[in-house]
Amino acid sequence: MPDEPSEDLHSFQVDLRGLVDLLSQHLYSSPRVYIRELLQNAVDAVTARAKLEPDAPRSIRILVHEGGLRITDPGIGLTEPDAHRFLSTIGRSSKRDELAGARQEFLGQFGIGLLACFTVAESIRVVTRSAAAPDAPTIQWLATSDGTYSVERVAAGQELAEPGTRVELTPRAGAERWFVPERVVELAREYGALLPYEVTVEHEGRVVRTTDSPPMWDRAYPSPVARRMALMDYGESVLGFAPLDLVEFDLPLVGIRGVGYVLPQPANPTESGRHRIHLKGMLLGDAVAGLLPDWAFFLRCLVTADALKPTASREALYEDETLAAVREALGGRIRDWLTELAVQEPARLHAFLSVHAVGVKALACHDAGLLRIMLPYLEFETTDGRVPLTEFAKAHKEILVAASVEEFRQVAAIAAAQGVGVANGGYTYDSELLFQLPELLPGVAVEQLAADSITDALDPVDPVEELRLAGFLTAARATLEPLDCDVILREFQPYSVSALHVEGRAARQERTRAEAEAESEGLWAELLGALKSTQPRARLVLNHRNPVIRKLAQIPDPVLLGTAVEALYGQALLMTHRPLRPADTALLNRAFGELLGWATQVARPATDGQEAA
Ligand SMILES: Nc1ncnc2c1ncn2[C@@H]1O[C@H](COP(=O)(O)OP(=O)(O)OP(=O)(O)O)[C@@H](O)[C@H]1O
User: Fold this and answer.
1) InterPro entries per the record (predicted)?
2) Does ligand 1 lie within 6 Å of residue 95's CB atom?
3) Ligand 1 centroid to 93 CA: how many Å?
4) Which of the listed residues 114, 121, 284, 401 has the most CB atoms within 10 Å of its CB?
């Protein structure tokens, strides 16, 4: 009979122990979340009842006793069918609408929270009376960790006097530490300090209130200064560092309120996003990522949010369109805050930028409006020192941008002495911002620094004098030919610099290629050889004003002259702060060794003479 329903159709069976292991080892970071799940159910039950009876009681009580823990709420309660439907079906929740999904007003939504209690409990007993069905009897649902449960009416005399629910846990062997009264207080405080209803923990007659709402940012203060001080102190006590400043957040549309605290030290951009977030009063976590745009890595937030969704572990934010919109809105708020500081409190802005300029530069790269506002405050490394570009541009209508820190160091002293304006574009974001300058400051030109820009700015030597030194220059060129370096003579400031090693990007690439070719064999070496470039080579620019150069030009001994030129080359290389190639180090050692040898030879006859006398 093919149309008969198959007798092979079965319902899934769930192995509770396996499921609890899965939850505790892969979903929740620690069994400690059991308190959060109990509190969450109690809060949701109170919220649900308040919708029916706005004046119903709201206090939630936890009692820690020898046999375990009991949490009592005056919430909506459950009828017997409810207990079968919701408590006994994993994944089913009363807090979802078939159409709308999770309901805004509740914390829970997944229908798995109660299972978290099995990570620490041997048995869970729920004694409950429904507020929705006034005549419904008090029932008891008892589940044990072997995966079985029973539902029954409680015995006469044991009924609850009022609607609500009492959940009782007995500890599992080995999990007793999660039931120590101090720990329960600590966990209730950690997760539930900002819950909207009062929560108390009682042990041996001592009652501790663990809620402390409304949050600090929702309280009234006598003055803005008092408010700022209270929020700063609160931030320090919760985050463990004294914040540099704070930004307040208030996005009513998504129910976000709270404070972003400015880190007192430069932050690591890769460690951004460690925020302490409460969803509807319940702590989601204290290192939650994804709330702010990546560039805002200088802030740590303490916020409450109503409309953001948690992941099933309730330890991270669920990434959806709402979260993306929130991130953008909070980014906008941070930007406005910076703008307000620039206009109203430049001293605070300076303090902020002295630590977090990189974050602001990152932001300004994509926000011309902000860059315009920040330009007078953001400092850049230039040949005039660390100055804002507005100031630098007053002295230099043409700004050259060095592509790397190394290139900047190579030319900075010389360029500064010739009055050429060079900015260091080697730091992250700086180059991008520098090239936006002409749009913000009309009349200012910005160009990439080329190796020739500096040599071109140096004064040529009188042709007659250059001719006189032709022999010396030829000898110097012959010495540096094997190193692929040209030699030219110029006059420049400061006199103390004897020689400059100038190398454009093309020359640097050619040098790397040549090195690779020298180290390779066979086809690879041939290929590299074919790539040999005819681009300009590196140059050693000798300073004709430097007394050492003038003296060297008079050395008659070609060997000593060669060694001296090598030493000059080495010294100029050292000035570039570039890491030396093994060949350069060898050259330096050899040149200085030989010079020392010469020096001692020159010194010896005099000494010998003295000894003889
Ligand atoms: N204290 C309580 N009062 C009334 N009903 C409760 C209580 N605790 C649990 N329930 C019922 O049991 C259901 C399942 O609870 P459980 O904690 O497993 O999931 P949830 O709260 O719905 O969702 P989540 O997994 O996100 O916590 C709830 O939807 C609710 O109907």
Assistant:
1) HATPase_C_sf, Hsp90_fam, Ribosomal_Su5_D2-typ_SF
2) yes
3) 6
4) 121
Angle 321-344/346-365 helices, nearest 10 degrees? 140
Q: What's the DSSP call for residue 149?
A: E
pLDDT per position as a tens digit, 303-362: 999 889 999 888 899 999 999 999 999 999 998 999 899 889 999 999 999 999 988 898
DSSP class per residue in 391-417: HHHHH-SEEEEESSHHHHHHHHHHHHH
Residue 282 in contact with residue 196, Cβ under 8 Å? no
Whether ligand 1 lies within 6 angstroms of the CB of 49 is answered as no
Q: Which domains does the chain have, with CATH numbers?
A: 10-209 (3.30.565.10), 216-350 (3.30.230.80), 378-455 (3.40.50), 459-504+535-604 (1.20.120.790)
Mutate to test the pocket of ligand 1, among 41, 92, 117, 197 (most ligand atoms within 8 A of CB): 41
Please indicate, yes or no, whether the overall pTM of this predicted structure exceeds 0.80: no
Q: Is 592 in the pocket of ligand 1 (CB under 6 A)?
A: no
Q: How buried is residue 589: exposed, middle or buried, by Cβ count under 10 Å (0-12/13-18/19+)? A: exposed
Give yes or no for a contact between 342 and 349, defined as CB atoms under 8 angstroms apart.
yes
Are residues 500 and 540 in contact, defined by beta-carbon separation less than 8 angstroms?
yes
Atom of ligand 1 nearest to the CA of 90: 18
Dmax (CA) for the chain in angstroms is 133
Predicted complex ipTM: 0.97
* Contact between residue 334 and residue 327 where contact means Cβ atoms under 8 Å apart: no
Tell me how far apart the alpha carbons of residues 572 and 502 are, in angstroms, rounded to a whole number: 9
* Structure token pair of residue 596: 């020392």
Expressed in angstroms and rounded, the spacing between residue 56 Cα and the centre of ligand 1 is 19
And the tokens for 124? 């869970």
Q: Is 341 in the pocket of ligand 1 (CB under 6 A)?
A: no
**How many Cβ atoms sit within 10 Å of the Cβ of residue 133?**
15
Contact 591, 571 (CB under 8 A): no
Phi first, then psi: what are they for 449, rounded to 5°?
Answer: -75, 125
First to last CA, the chain: 133
- Contact partners, residue 499, CB within 8 Å, separation at least 6: 540, 541, 542, 543, 546, 549, 568, 569, 571, 572
Q: How far is the CA of 111 from the centre of ligand 1 (A)?
A: 6
Residue pointed to by tokens 């200064």: 225
Atom of ligand 1 nearest to the CA of 93: 29
User: Residue ranges for the binding site for ATP?
Assistant: 37, 41, 73, 165
Closest CA to 72 of 44, 106, 38, 49: 38
Q: Which two tokens stand for residue 294?
A: 């990546």
Q: Read off the tokens for 547.
A: 């007394």
Span 111-150, pLDDT tens digits: 788 888 999 999 999 999 999 998 899 999 999 988 888 9
- Rounded to whole angstroms, the Cα distance separating 417 from 423 reads 14
In Å, how far are 400, 405, 419 from 454, measured between CA atoms? 10, 16, 11
Q: Whose CA is nearest to atom 26 of ligand 1?
A: 108
Where residue 240 falls (left for φ over 0; alpha for ψ -120 to 50; beta otherwise) is left
- For residue 287, what is the enclosing H or E element? strand 282-288
Positions of E strands within 16-65 = 60-65
